[in-house]
Amino acid sequence: MTRRFRSFAPIAVALSLVLVLAACQQGENGGGGEGGTVSLLVVFGGEELTNFESMLAPFEEETGIDVQIESNRDANAILQTRIDGGNPPDVAGLPGPGPMAQFARDGHLKQLPQEVIDILDSNYDEGWKVAGSVDGTPYGIFVKTSLKGLIWYNPQAFSDAGYEPPEDWDGLVSLVDEIADSGTPPWGIGLESGAASGWPGTDWIEDFVLRQSGPEVYDAWVNGEQAWTSPEIRAAFEAFGQWATDPIYVAGGPNAVLSTAFGNGGDCLFAEPPGCYLHHQASFMSGFFEENFPEVAAAGETYDYFMMPPIEFNAITTAGDLFGMFNDTDAAKQLMAYLVSAEAQEAWVRTGGVLSANKEVPTDAYPDDATRRAAEIMTSAETTRFDASDQMPSAMNDAFFGAILDYVQNPDNLDSILEELDGVQAEAYGE
Predict the structure, then answer these.
(1) What is the pLDDT of residues 13-59, one digit of tens each?
(2) Are 324 and 116 in contact (CB under 8 A)?
């Protein structure tokens, strides 16, 4: 991939002026070095880090700013240690909107500069700005995003069995029952993810809450104003449990659901004969298919997806990698503005496996049809909501993960599980 980027929209001119003027101002203020430095802590590694560095190269060339990247898979713990020691990085990846809110309220995070807010207002759906805000003030940006609620399938296996992707919710329910009646469990589900085990199940619940009960209920739930024992949240758990806790509907039965790593939850799509026909997971799942089955995985041939259909409401859920600014230096402000620009985002998505919420990124920048379609769905959706569990306080998020595991193992205990979540909610939200 080339390390250059091309300007193709008016925002490019505006961004260039911002960068140049800010760089000049920094020089006048004695900002240090040719264009200054900015320290950046990220969790990226391997090829993802290489692609990220490639995306940053034009920024460094244009501004003279040296971006000093520290990459560590334990970046969240390192960030907290640095904050506690009074020496945070200038910019850092954040664990999620929940921890972001705590950092902001504790006075550690800096508000986004106006040039960043202007780009968000012009080129992003309002939901992304809201998800990066705390008490109405923007603090975070999403440097890359993913689309949730995708249902993956194997087109070859579908064709051989005479199945077709459904057109609506009733069609999906009918398809699931038809597959189950054939003797093959329809769904492949994996909930194991180390200390975060259970999170793939929270995605199911979030999709059901949003599609069954709508954005107002979803937002109230995220904000701690909707009881877990309410009929709406209970209905979402029951909809998930109807499939995830029944060996007729899920490959290997509930015990396999609990012990299967999330990255292997869709492996049964590639078995011969198929061990399942459907897998609910975000847009990044294609990377696991390619890694797990390098000889047979082929986009559009042996794996593809359709969106989880609307039920009562037509809406989608999303997630993303969140960055925040801990020191509001000129160099840090310039970097934050660049990261959300169409130029940076286009360079990022061209590397593959990455989606951008910036509406100015052209669809032909995506290297394959699967990510191209996902980007079109995300940027054209009528109603978009960010991953609910990621926005909840840490204690609530952790309890949600655990509740998923408890429910799959003991579905008859749903009443007590939801009551316990209500108790955590009261404490976590300070009520």
Answers:
(1) 344 444 444 444 333 333 334 579 999 999 988 888 999 999 999 99
(2) no
